[in-house]
Every structure is written in structure tokens, then in C-alpha cells.
Amino acid sequence: MSRYFLRRLLLVIPVLIGVSVFTFILFYIVPGDPVLIMVGERASPETVARLRAELGLDQPLPIQYLNWIGKAVRGDLGRSFITGRSIAESIQARFPVTVRLSLYSMLFAIVLGIPAGIWAATHKGTWIDGVIRNVSLLGVCTPVIFQGLAMQYIFGVWLRWLPVSGLNDGSWRDFLMPAFVLGTGIAAYQARLVRAVMLEVLGEDFIRTARAKGLSERLVVYRHALRNALIPIVTTLGGSLSSLLVGSALTETIFALPGIGSYTLDAVFARDLPVIMAMFVFQAVVFAAANLLIDAAYALIDPRVRYE
Amino acid sequence: MLGLTERSRVSVRRLGLALSLVAALVLAAAPAALAQTPKYGGVWYGSIANDPPTLDPAYAVTGVDGSLVALLYDGLVGFDTEGRVIPNLAKSWEISEDGRTYTFYLVDNAYFHNGDHFTAADVKYSFERVLHPATLSPRTWVLDRIAGAKEFMAGEADEVTGIRIIDDYTIEITLEQPFAPFLTMLGMPAAHIVNRRVIESYADPRTEYAFNPVGTGPFMLARYNPGDRIIFAANERYHQGRPYLDGIQYRIINDAATRIAEFEAGNLHATALTTDALIRFQRDPRYRDYILTTNDLTLYFIGLNATRPPFDDYRVRQAVSWAVDRELLAETVVQYTRIPAQGPIPPGLDGYRPDLVGYGYDPAKARQLLAEAGYPNGLTFEVHIANADVNVQLFEPIQLMMAEAGIHMEIVLRDLPSILQDTTRNALDAFYASWLADYPDAENFLYPLFHSDNFGAGGNRTSFSHPEVDRLIELAQAETDRDRRIQLYHQIEDLILEQAPRVFLFYGQSWVAIRPEVRGYELYRIFNANKMTKVWLDQ
Questions:
Q1: Is pLDDT above 90 for B10?
Q2: How far apart are CA A88 and CA B332, in angstroms?
Q3: B399 vs B431: CA distance, rounded Å
Q4: How confident is the model at residue A40 (pLDDT cuts 50, 70, 90)?
Q5: Which element (helix H / strand E) includes B170?
């Protein structure tokens, strides 16, 4: 099995190379010249040309790419064109914010979504099921902007229970609202999924056997049914976690949190090539790592996987 | 500078810095304020829309970094709320008869944040640094009219001969030719004074000095958390006297709605207002007496490509100018935040004429002009606009207005940097953009936009070329007599209106709400004029 994971790890490398090449090409296809953006209006052509040379943008494209990848494999992600700050330092400062936001959001997603889904499944056809299905539909459809702003006004402006935005004292209070907004979006989707999967599992033969054996309904549902429903649930949760970890740019913007989502978005607008390259490859790494973790989780949940 | 009619996220940054003159409104509503003596103390909580790309005056090109440079550094001169030049590091000055030589008498009580005493040598160093080829400053145009600058920039001289140190507190600057806006341009961020010892202590100042500013300004940088906030502390030794505030904290808040929510939660002392927030606040008894406004020096226009049909014919340009009902738009879609523009010179600058009559809405006249120019069946063209809600809301009605005149205007949504790049290649028929004053002189709305020296990134993005316009602009730049210069500005404006290189739509109007305990806060017309030295908190 460890050979399997080793193979998976090695396969990540061509993926990262592919992502970096694709990003690089995309950057040059999309209009927008970082040098012109940096110098603003009325800069002399000499200044523009010299700045371009200083940033290495006058070299042929393959050379530029090779320079970048040569440094990147040694861990040198370079500096922002615009601010000159080390990208690695910026990631170090900002990624923890995104990680915290992601984990708190997952907490909401799991705590709200999974029990709701199980409840809806075990009370299928009743009013509980109806309420859960409709509320979750609402959750899926409500845009983050609206939910975020509404919460900011209710809890931040009128009740003054929570900060409106920003990283203030760095405590959980700064993350509560944005995590809730993100988490409920995921929870809504999870609830519906969990319900569907549970219903399917609960219809299986082995469940009838368990009930026939005289096991309590609680044990049937939580010990036997849920365990088998976990694979698809963990898959989607893992997918959600991956998406969160690459930075929820919109939520970070609305709640003014200095995470990597807003960092990447700002770089795209400013055509800050080194940051864009670094962040897109970083996202690919995070995705790959998250997927590997999920696969490891399968091995824990499903003994059949272990013996492959 | 080219203003950004980009998504609200970017245009907001200009709003976020607008400072106004109409403190009269506030004073009228709060008469108690007049009788009070200012109190020292307190921290100002404000916001900026983006991280500053730099805090080094030689590279500051955006509104955000310009406003922060104003806190950290000083120039020889500054600006008052209206945009008139006032003394700063230069306490007085003389200009020679021929308008070429400026003698500045400097203050002797200014100190850099590291304790170094400010002298004339610092002025020479700072200006030469901007002009030095190795610095790669994009703002050489602010100082390149100084005699000897061109040779220095080309590496042919090792000093700028036009900058002469007379003694520690007297410096003489001679220009190649008389250039009337020079004094005003000295208030720009690029002409702010830096410290040689500090900058030369870095191996690569362009990247290493950028966020370690040392100036003579009223505030010093205390802490900067990128993406989060930037914090300033008062400079106790400021040469004009310690600011009343102990410090300033600017949160970095990109989203306008979030910023207004923070203001309402009591976490910000001031906020720029969007149109809907303005309407809400005007009805709210808690806020309505605390709203300031000013016209900001922004011009909104449709640029028409003069190098190819259909807009190479001035009659077609005139026709399009007659096909927009600016008044109606200013009363509805862009109510409050825009005022109709008659010509390129905005209110508040010498040369502005309140009674100027430009183009109104006359579809019949437009049709007639089109017929004369060879388009009897109407005209079709594309206008490229930045993809923002406010722009779409503005251009859909304009499309209908144009249709009345037989003009089929297609709207293409893009992002602003790529639109601007296309204009340098003359690849577009028409585009929508804005121009924000770099310095408060009408010349900044005429020379960059309409002189044939400035095609492309110089500002003249429609490649408009008219020898008489060029000649009059050059005359105005050299004219040292203020009244005669205003006359020339009027002549240029009239000629430009006749030639119609752009459809002038609006000037900008900014609105800012402040908290009741704020005193001494005024809106300044020019983006980098507010040094926050007059503001105090009554708490």
C-alpha cells in the first residue's frame, strides 16, 4: 500500500509542472502588461524598457519559464513584481489565516451538515425531513455576498457581538462569521448528500439483518449505516476542504481577512506574474496533498481498501 | 493620472481618499466646533481600499500610495483644500522675471524621522534620485523640465546643473524653459523629500526601502501588516508642529459595503459613501449632519480614436457628443456622484467656466452632422468599457440615447488595463475611462490628454493631433501671468470642444461621512494633499 502512495506522490510532479506551464501560457495570452500597470501614466519609454529588462520580462518566454522553474524547484518562489516582497514570506504570513478559516468552516459544515442529513434520512417523509430539505436548498442558493453582508449588519453593527471584518485580536471571533457563511454553504450541500447516501445504505440487506438481530436503531444507524455511507461523504468533504484551502477570495474580501485567496486575486488584477505562478502551483500542491489525505482516510474507514 | 472606472473595488480607492472643502456644511451644522480648542490625543481609524504598492515617493503612482506619502514625507510645497499651493519645506519662494528660476527659502526646523536635520542638499538629492536612470522612477516627467535634467537622465552628466544649493536653507532651481505648472507639480508625491543616508544604506533600495520609509512628514510608519492594516505614529518633532492625533490606523478594506458597515459599527472615523449609502445616510438623523462633499478633480469621458474612420472626422465626433443626455444621467443613474461636464477642465481649477456651454442632447443635430460627414444612414461603432456594474448601468441608457440619433453603439465589456493597452495601438473605435488630476492645474487636463507629444501612455490615448491646440498649450505652459494663462486655457478649451476628441460626460463628486467627534477634517480636492495635521478628536 505504501507503494501505492509513493506512486501517487510521484505522479504529483508532472501535475505541478503542467499547472505551471499552463498558468504561464495563460498569463501571456490574457491582455495586461504588469510593467505598464506598475508605472502608471506618462512614464518614459526608456523607463518602461529598463524596468521590463530588470524584471526579466524582455527575455524569450521559454527562458523566462525555465528561470522561474529553476528557482522554484530549489524553493525560491521569487519576489512580487509590484512590492518586491518575498512571496514565500507572504505565503507564510497569509496561509495560516486561510487554514484557520478553512478548518472553522469545515467544523460548521460537519457539525451542521451531517447530523441534518442523518436526521432527514431517518425521518424521511416527516416534517423534519421537509424542513431540512428546504432549508438546505436555501443554503445552497444564497449567495455569499448577501449572507455575509446580512450577518455583518446583524451581528457586527446592530448587536455588536462580533467584529464586522478584519483580523483584529486574531481570536476565533474574527473567523466566526466568515466560517459560518462558508460552512453553511457546504453544510447545505452535505445535508442533501448525506441524506441521499444514508437512504441508499439504509435500504441495504445488511441493515435488515442488523435490525433483525435486535440491535438498537441508534447502533444500526450510527455504527453500521453511517460507517458505510462515509466514503462518499468523506470524498465531498475532502473536496470542500481542498477548495477552502486554496483560499475563498470572495469571503476574504468581504470580511477583509488577509488570506491567500485575496492575495492571489490581487496578484491577478495587478498581473503580478511571480505571485500568480507561485500561488497557482501552491494551490495544485494543496489540492494534491488534500486528495492524498482523503485517500489515506479511506484506508482508515474502509478495511477493504487496505488490502489492495 | 488615469482614473479607474474598473470594478467598484478599484474606483472606490479614489473615493476613499477624497477630501473636501465644504467643511462649511459641517461647521454650519455643528457651531459648537468653532468655539473649541483642539485637543491632542487619540488614534484615527480610517481605511484604504488596497495595499500600497510602495511607500517610496520615487515609485508612488497610485492614489493610495500618494495619500500615504503625504503623511510620511513633505514636499517643498503642499496644497490647501481647494488645491492652491501652500508652503511646506519651502517657507517662501521667488520666481525670476523670465519665469525660469525659482529660489526656495527652506525651513530650518525640519528633521527626518531618524533625527537627521533637513537641508537643501536633501532636496537636490531627492530630485536627482527621481531623475537618475538607475532609479527607474516612472515619474521623471515631474522634474524633467529642470535645466540639465535631460543630460543627467541620459547618463551624460553626474548632476542636474539646474539645481543649485545656495546654502543650507536656500536652493535655486532653473528650468530649461518657463513652465507655469512647475510649482504646482512640486506638490506631487514624486517631488517629496527623502533621506540619502537611509536610502544608500540599502543594496537594492527599489525593493528594500519600499516599506521602510524615512521622511520629514507629520507621521511615521509604526507597523504594516499586508492585507490587513497599516499603522502610523505622530512625528512629535514635525516642523509645522505636532499633529493633534497620536496616530493613524488604516484598515485595508477592499469592499465598499464592508467599509460602510464598519463605519456604522463605530469602527471607522470616516468613510467614503457610495450612492446608495449616501441616500440612506441623508435620511438618517444620526448621520445626515455629518456628511462632507467636494467635487474631486476627475473627468469621465468617452475617448474617440482620431486615427481612423469613423472618428477621424471631427463632425462625426461632434455628432456623438450631441447624442448623450448628460443632465438626465446625472439626475438618475449616477445621481450625486457625478455632475455633467461641459468641457475638460473640472470645477475648482483656474480656467474653469461655470457658464461654459458645451454639448447637450440634440439627436436631430447629431443626425444632421452625420449626414454631412457621409453617414446618412447612421453610424455603428464599438465602445469598450471596464466591466463594472456602474459602467453597465451608465452605458445601457447611453446606448438608447445614441439610437435616437441613428447611432448604433455596441458595448464591449473588458478589464481596464487591457483596454488601455489597446488604445496605445489605436485598436479601438471608442473607450470609456476617467482622468484624475495629478496636480491641481488645468494644464494637467489639457497637455497630457490633447497634445500630440503624448500619444498612448502619455495620456493622449485617442491620438488626437491638432497643431493649433499644441501651440496654444505650449504657450499656456510658458505663460507666467496668471490671467493671461487663464485666457489661453479658455481658448484651448473652446478649440477642443469644437474638435470634440472626446465626449466629455461628467466630473466626479465625492461624499464622505464622519463621526460626530471628528473635528478639523476637511475634504481636499487633490488626492495627496491631506496630511491629517488639522484633524482632532473631541473625546
A1: no
A2: 48
A3: 14
A4: confident
A5: strand B170-174
Residues 6+ apart with CB under 8 A from A114: A190, A191, A194, A233
Task: Give the pLDDT band of residue B34 (cuts 50, 70, 90).
Answer: low
**B27: amino acid identity, one letter:** L
B310 preceded by cis ω (within 30°)? yes
Distance between CA A37 and CA B152 in Å, rounded?
A: 26
Per the listing, cell 492652491 goes with B84
Is A90's CB within 8 Å of B226's CB?
Answer: yes
Q: Which residue has the higher pLDDT, B105 or A129?
A: B105
What is the nearest CA distance from A145 to chain B, expressed in angstroms?
10
State the CB neighbour count (10 A cutoff) for residue B374: 11
The C-alpha atoms of residue B454 and residue B436 are separated, in whole angstroms, by: 16
**B183 has pLDDT over 90:** yes
Tell me the β-bridge partners of B316.
none
Using an 8 Å Cβ cutoff, are B168 and B122 in contact? no
- Helix (H) / strand (E) element for B85: namely strand B85-87
Closest CA to B192 of B78, B110, B80, B92: B78
- Residues with Cβ within 8 Å of B401's Cβ and at least 6 positions away in sequence, in order, are B323, B324, B325, B361, B363
CB B299 within 8 A of CB B434: yes
Q: Tell me the pLDDT tens digit for each residue of A210-240.
A: 888 888 888 887 877 888 888 888 888 888 9
Nearest CA in chain B to A164: B262
Do B61 and A83 lie within an 8 Å CB cutoff? no
Contacts of A153 in chain B (CB under 8 A): 261, 264
pLDDT-derived band at B261 (thresholds 50, 70, 90) equals very high
Q: Nearest C-alpha of chain A: how many angstroms from B498?
A: 26
CA dist B74 and B235 (Å) reads 12
B34 reaches A (C-beta below 8 A) = no
pLDDT at position A19 over 60:
yes
How many Cβ atoms from other residues are within 10 Å of residue A187's Cβ? 29
B284 touches A: beta carbon within 8 Å? no
Which residues, including other chains, have CB under 8 Å from residue B276's CB and lie 6 or more apart?
none
Give the angle subtended at the CA of A248 by the CAs of A247 and A250, to the nearest 5°.
Answer: 140
Q: Where are the alpha helices (H) located in A55-86, listed in sequence order?
A: 61-72
Distance CA(B467)–CA(B428), nearest Å, equals: 24
Q: Pseudo-torsion of CA B518, B519, B525, B530, nearest 10°? A: -90
Contact between residue B136 and residue B206 where contact means Cβ atoms under 8 Å apart: yes
Rounded to whole angstroms, how far apart are CA atoms B199 and B44?
A: 29
- pTM, rounded to two decimals: 0.88
Alpha-carbon distance of B132 to B149, in angstroms, equals 9
* B475 contacts chain A (CB < 8 A): no
Retrieve residue B231's grid coordinates. Answer: 499603522
* Residue of A289 and B93 predicted with greater confidence: B93
Summary mean pLDDT of chain B: 92
- What is B102-132 written as a DSSP string? EEEEEPSS-B-TTSPBP-HHHHHHHHHHHH-
d(CA B129, CA B205): 11
Q: Does B298 lie at the interface with A, CB-CB under 8 angstroms?
A: no
User: Could you give the CA distance from residue B19 to residue A302 in angstroms, rounded to a whole number?
Assistant: 64
Q: Do B253 and A166 touch (CB under 8 A)?
A: yes
**Total number of residues shown for chain A:** 308
Instruction: For residue A29, count CB atoms less than 10 angstroms from its CB and return exposed for 0-12, middle for 13-18, buried for 19 or more.
Output: exposed
